[in-house]
Amino acid sequence: MRESRSEHMLRGSAEGLLLFLIEEKGQSYGYEIIREIERRSRGYLTFKEGTIYPALHKLENQGLILGEWSELPSGQQRRCYRITEKGRKELSERIQAWEGFQNALNLIYKPSNA
Question: Do residues 44 and 6 touch, judged by C-beta distance below 8 A?
Fold first, then answer.
C-alpha cells in the first residue's frame, strides 16, 4: 500500500510530536497520545499502535522519556510516560530546528518580486 503525503511528512516529526505532547500533559499513555494527535489535527494525522509504541520505546531507550506501569481501577495495566530533563532539552532543540525549517520553506514558497 502506498504511503500518503501526510504519512511521509509526519515520519520525521513523530518523535518530536510525542515529546511535545508528553511534556505538555506531564504524563501520558500511548492510546491517549494517538487520540490527542488525531483530535488536534482534526483527523488529518493518525497514528497506529504499531507506529507509536516502537517510537515511544525508542524515546525511552534514548532516555528522553520514562515509562512506568500503573494499574487502573479495573486491574488493567497501562504504561504511562513522562519526559525527562534530557527529553526537555531534545524537545527544545527539535522545536528550534522545526521553526528554522518552517521559516526557510516560507521564504521559498513566498512569491518572488524579481
Answer: yes
Class at the top of the CATH hierarchy for domain 5-109: mainly alpha
Look at residue 43 and give its three-state secondary structure: coil
> What is the distance of C-alpha 31 from the center of its chain?
12
Kindly tell me if the per-residue pLDDT of 114 is higher than 80: no
pLDDT single digits (tens) 54-110: 999 999 999 999 999 988 888 889 899 999 999 999 999 999 988 998 899 899 998
pTM over 0.85? The answer is: no
Residues written for the chain: 114
What count of other Cβ atoms lies within 10 Å of the Cβ of residue 90?
20
Q: Where are the domains of the chain?
A: 5-109
Q: Which of 58, 16, 55, 21 is nearest to 38 (CA)?
A: 21
